[in-house]
Amino acid sequence: EPEVTQTPSHQVTQMGQEVILRCVPISNHLYFYWYRQILGQKVEFLVSFYNNEISEKSEIFDDQFSVERPDGSNFTLKIRSTKLEDSAMYFCASSSDSVTEAFFGQGTRLTVV
Amino acid sequence: GIQVEQSPPDLILQEGANSTLRCNFSDSVNNLQWFHQNPWGQLINLFYIPSGTKQNGRLSATTVATERYSLLYISSSQTTDSGVYFCAVHTGGGNKLTFGTGTQLKVEL
Q: Which of A37, A38, A58, A94 to substitute to test the interface with B, most B CBs within 10 Å?
């Protein structure tokens, strides 16, 4: 069964460093998303990406964040100058169109120390 | 934006018991999904159910879109059902999912 895969599963980084979280969406999907979940809280939308550009972003997704589809299979989230409050589980998701079922990766747990 | 509330927030069951989880949303939706977040943090798709009723084994779900709620039924609960259950909705004008507040379920022997 096709699935969304994320790497790494865990990442620990020093405050102020840059991190890149990687995702391989399901191959025939066209919409890609990043969500995050701070420990003990609900899942929050960060950004959606379609046709090689951002289609929607939340207030959380400020200039510290960027997304890229560097090739035909990968989708990345870059966080510049990480802060302690960026510590969270980050989920990548994909869907075949904007309203159909979205499938989530297993998440990357980011810890900023 | 749309508000998505789930109840109850916490639930403890004995193995074998049945339960109903509820998701209320404040506006019309064109997509609703139920997820199970397991103890390792993974979000597992349970149902894509913008309307109507679906069943998958011991789980079933019903969405009444006109009344803005969805129900998730768990029958004959097992310890592996423990975790957090989230509903998430998609509304017109965007393509994000808005997640509910979650129900933390613990199934005990």
A: A37
